[in-house]
Amino acid sequence: MFLGMVLEAVIIVIPSELILATGGILAYHGIFSFWGAFMIGLLGSIFCAILLYFMGYYGGEKFIEKYGKYFFMKKDDLLKTDSWFYKYGMLSALIGRNFPIIRTLISIPIGVTRQSFLKFVLYTTLGSIPWTFAFVSFGYLLGENWIVVNSYIEYLKIPIWILLSYLFLKFIIKKIHQ
After folding, report:
1. Which of 28, 29, 69, 158 lies at a CB distance of 3.0 to 4.6 Å from 143, suitable for a disulfide?
2. What is the pTM of this model?
3. Which residues contact 63 (CB under 8 A, 6 or more apart)?
4. Which of 50, 51, 45 is nearest to 135 (CA)?
């Protein structure tokens, strides 16, 4: 579960919602305790946020210029986030932890803008608690019924692949025309 959360943050392929809910299902079956699954998920989330914070902190604007496209960021985005952090401070880290994709990527500009590491860890931890608790609880409450949910998910696979293929092609076409 911890490794899954790390991969979710660095690669953004495995959604944390799925990892945390799976931890909850495993807790329901007695493989983890509920609080053990919660803590592993929370620690994994915080560890990932710290990794990305340091990528931004030590990489700075050059990191965004070189690798930002992989994180859907441009140098102009840093100017926006800088004013955002100036206006809202670490509250943005706390709130941002509860929105998909933003929850992962917000750590990089916070590092680039060299926000306080201790405040970052505190607000990241506090902001990650509701997300982690919600999805571990969801998995735990799902318990034996995860198979039923999985059967419904089967119907969504084709439309999801079509949407992802469309978005990927649109991205490639945009890059070719730049």
Report:
1. 28
2. 0.70
3. 55, 56, 108, 112
4. 45
Looking up tokens 């699954």, which residue turns up?
37
Tokens standing for residue 20: 């945390």
Q: What is the DSSP letter of 142?
A: H
Q: Which residue has the tokens 């730049």?
A: 178
For 120-150, letters b (16+ CB in 10 Å) and e give bbebbbebbbebbbebbbebbebeeebeeee
Contacts of 58 (CB under 8 A, 6+ apart): 111
- Give helix 16-28 / helix 117-142 axis angle, nearest 10°: 50
Reported as a single tens digit per residue, the pLDDT across 15-54 is 777 788 888 888 998 888 999 999 999 999 899 889 888 9
- Dihedral of the alpha carbons of 27, 28, 29, 33, in degrees to the nearest 10: 30
User: Per-domain residue ranges for the chain?
Assistant: 2-144
CA distances from 70 to 19, 73, 131 (A): 22, 8, 24
For residues 134 and 16, is the Cβ–Cβ distance under 8 A? no
- Contact (Cβ atoms closer than 8 angstroms) between residue 89 and residue 143: no
**Which alpha helices (H) appear in 29-145, and where do they start and end?**
34-67, 75-88, 91-96, 102-105, 107-112, 117-142
